[in-house]
Amino acid sequence: MPYDYDLFVIGGGSAGVRCARVSATHGAKVAIAEERFWGGTCVNVGCVPKKIMVNAAEYGGWIDDAPAFGWTVRKLGFDLGRLKAARDAEVARLNGVYGKLLGGAGCTVFEARATLVDPHTVQVGGRRVTAERIVLAVGGKSVRPEIPGAELGMLSDDVFDLEVLPRRLAVVGSGYIGLEFGCLFHGLGSEVDLIYRNELPLRGFDNDIRTALKEALAVQGIRQHAPRQLARLDRAGDGVLVTLDDGARIEADAVLLATGRAPNLHGLGCDAIGVECTAMGAVEVDEDHRTTVPSVYAIGDVTDKLNLTPMATAVGHALADTLFGKNPRRASYRDVPTAVFTNPPIGTVGMTEADAAALGPVDIYATRFTPMRHGISRREGRKALMKLVVCQRTRRVLGAHMLGEDAPEIMQGIGIAVAMGATKEDFDRTVGIHPTAAEEFVTLRTRTREAGVRAAAE
User: Is 225 designated active site?
Assistant: First the structure.
C-alpha cells in the first residue's frame, strides 16, 4: 500500500530536525511533529540558554580581575531580568531558524503531539497519517526525586523562568546540570550549597579532573555537602528548608533538583506496537538505531546512549544518509569530545585513566599550573589541570582531559587528534603556540606515572 510519507519523525530537537531535513534533501517525502518547541531541550531549556548564563557569570569574574590589570571599574550589581530578556530573545530567534530549515527543505511540519498507532501509522493533530518509516526523537526530561516535599524544588527547565536571582541556592546533584548551574549562579552572586551522594562530583569522568574540580569549587566558596543525600524539602517562609540524610539542614531561597533525566516516552505508544525498552527505560536499538519494530527507529536522548546534542545531530544525519542517501554509515560513539561548563570549565575526549588501565599498561602525563592571566589577577581556584593517557604498547593517546579556562575550545582540536589515533610522539613533535595554556598539551615530556601494569600482567 502507498504511504502518506516516506519518513515521519516524532520530535523536533537536534536529532529529529537533522534527520528530517537531510532525508528531505535526499528526496524523501518527510513529515515531522513537535508538540512543544523547535530545537528541543538544547536550544530552549538546555545548552544554549545555559551557555548564555555562563557567559554572564564570566563577565562578573572579569570585572573582579580588571583592577589587577590597571582598570578602574565599579561592580554595581547584576539584573537577572535583563539577562533573561536578552537570552529569551536569542532562544526565540534560534527556535525560528529550526522551523525555517525544515520548511526550506520541503518537510511537512506538524506543531502537535504525535503518538504511535501501529508500525506505520501515527496519530497527529487530530488525524492519522502513515509512513514507511518512523523515527522516534522525543528526547529526555528531568526526573523529580521521590522524597517528601520534592514539589518545592525546581527542575532544570524551571531555572529559565526565574526573574530574580536567588540569594541562597541549594543544588542537589553533581552531574553536568547541577554543577553548571551551581557554578554560574555562584558567579552571578548567589550563595550556593551543592549536595551530592559520592565523595567526588562528576561520576564517570577522570578522577584527577573530579578531584581538581572539587578543590576549585571549595576555594571559590561553593559549599559542598558530600557524600550526602537529600531527605526532604519543607516550606520555610518564602524559602525552602533542605534536610539531608544525616539530619543537617540548609536554608535556601530556591532548590534545584538535578538528580537525573529519563527518556520522554510517556504516552508515546511504544508498548502498544511492540517497541521494547531497556531496564533503564530507554528505547532499545541496534547498531543502526532500529528498534525491535523493523520500521521504527530511535535516535538521540531517547536511546540514552550518549546524551549530547552534537552526538544526536550526528546520528540523525547518519541515519538519513543510510535510509535515503545511498550512503549507509554509522556515527561513532567512540572518542566523542565533550565539555562541562563549570567554573573553571572541563574539556575531555577519549578514555579515563581508570578505564584505559583496566585494558593494559598506560603512561600518564599530567601537569597543574596557574594560567598567566591569574598570575596577575591572583584569583583563587583557577589552577589548570591537563592530562594525557597513553597506551604503553602503541603509544596512542587514549584520552585527553583538561580543567581550566578555555578547556572546551582547546579540547575540540585535541579531539580531532585523538579520534584520528594520534600517538604521544605526534603530540610531541607539534609546535606549541606561545604563550597559551593549550601548548602544555604538546610540551608534556615527563611521565607522571604508569597505571594498569598489574592488570596487564594478570
Answer: no
